């Protein structure tokens, strides 16, 4: 393997803090740009690597970011407002980071530079009449987050040397933890509260562990000659499950977990689909962490996590 100069924007986030150590372990020179907007210290454990550099900067500022863009062999843009809720709360910030900053980045890259980018399968909406989706299925983005991701994916495919990974809903422990992702959230509520009120409990979606996201980026680097210019769904093919089925899986790990359905909300993306991951599997990639193993991991992790910042108990 030839070591590459890899730039990871947003590398201190949920995905990046899992991916960056693996890139460093493979011998790559990794530069991370992150503004640390959440006050995270999630890359402390990799500072001893001589092939690691950190730049505290905002990817929207071309003067700060451009020198790092042009110096990289590979760019992995993870910086973003991720998910419909945060994009709805700050639509201007979301658009400038998720859309305008990516366009600026692409304008500063040559066709020789490889871009590996996470997009989202939430853009499928509810799929066809059978709720089935593969990479050729029509897109039906609803939320601001999904709309921006679809537009940027189209721009990305014009770059000529890029791979788009349409990620399933990610789960698992990470140095920069997120409790708002569905599996993480449901498991946390089961462990801490013992009950959960569901809405649209029959809605199905696909899932993937954060470690397998790191692995698919490494897979893309190692196999880019055969994968460039393509879009790939990335998820667990045996984890197209409904919210109710997810709760049943969690209940196998958490005693006395009670869940019930009520008409109390709606998914802003209306995600209700069965996703095919056959294309990425045909490239030689297979996820290693099952949904069941990930839930068991989360239960252990939550025993160490105290999220009661403003309480005395």
Write the layout of secondary structure elements.
Elements: E1 5-9, H1 16-25, E2 29-34, E3 52-56, H2 62-71, E4 74-77, H3 84-89, H4 91-107, E5 114-120, E6 132-133, H5 144-157, E7 162-167, E8 169-171, H6 182-192, E9 195-198, E10 204-209, H7 210-222, H8 224-227, E11 231-234, E12 240-242, H9 243-251, E13 258-261, E14 274-275, H10 278-282, H11 291-302
Parallel strand pairs: 1-2, 1-4, 2-3, 4-5, 5-7, 6-14, 7-11, 8-10, 9-13
Antiparallel strand pairs: 10-12
Q: Roughly what fraction of the amino acids lie in strands?
A: 15-25%
The CATH architecture of the largest domain is 3-Layer(aba) Sandwich
Structural class: alpha/beta
Tally of helical segments? 11
The ordered string of helix (H) and strand (E) elements is EHEEHEHHEEHEEHEEHHEEHEEHH
Strand order of the largest sheet: 3-2-1-4-5-7-11
Helix content: 25-40%
Q: What's the story with the biggest beta sheet?
A: 7 strands, parallel
Average of the residue pLDDT scores:
92
The first-to-last residue Cα distance is 51 Å
CATH fold name of the largest domain: Rossmann fold
* Low-pLDDT runs: none
Count of all domains = 2
Our Rg estimate from Cα atoms comes to 19 Å
CATH superfamily of the largest domain: NAD(P)-binding Rossmann-like Domain
State the oligomer: single chain
């Amino acid at each position: 393997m030839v070591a590459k100069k890899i730039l990871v924007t947003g590398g201190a986030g949920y995905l990046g803090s899992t991916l960056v150590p693996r890139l460093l372990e493979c011998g790559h020179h990794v530069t991370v740009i992150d503004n640390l907007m959440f006050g995270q210290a999630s890359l402390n454990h990799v500072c001893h690597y001589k092939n690691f550099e950190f730049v505290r900067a905002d990817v929207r500022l071309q003067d700060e970011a451009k020198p790092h863009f042009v110096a990289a062999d590979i760019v992995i843009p993870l910086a973003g407002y991720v998910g419909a809720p945060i994009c709805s709360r700050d639509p201007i910030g979301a658009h400038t980071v998720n859309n305008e900053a990516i366009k600026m980045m692409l304008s500063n890259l040559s066709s020789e530079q490889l871009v590996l980018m996470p997009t989202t399968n939430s853009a499928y909406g509810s799929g066809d009449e059978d709720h089935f989706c593969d990479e050729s299925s029509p897109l039906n983005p609803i939320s601001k987050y999904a709309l921006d991701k679809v537009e940027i994916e189209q721009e990305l495919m014009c770059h000529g040397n890029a791979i788009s990974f349409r990620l399933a809903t990610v789960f698992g422990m990470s140095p920069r933890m997120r409790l708002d992702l569905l599996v993480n959230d449901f498991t946390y509520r089961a462990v801490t509260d013992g009950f959960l009120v569901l809405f649209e409990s029959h809605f199905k979606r696909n899932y993937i562990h954060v470690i397998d996201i790191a692995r698919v980026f490494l897979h893309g680097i190692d196999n880019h000659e055969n994968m460039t210019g393509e879009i790939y769904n990335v998820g667990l093919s045996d984890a197209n499950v409904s919210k109710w089925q997810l709760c049943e899986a969690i209940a196998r790990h958490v005693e006395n977990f009670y869940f019930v359905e009520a008409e109390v909300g709606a998914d802003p993306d209306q995600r209700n689909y069965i996703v095919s991951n056959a294309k990425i599997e045909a490239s030689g990639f297979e996820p290693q962490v099952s949904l069941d193993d990930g839930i068991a991991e989360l239960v252990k992790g939550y025993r160490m996590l105290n999220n009661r910042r403003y309480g005395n108990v």
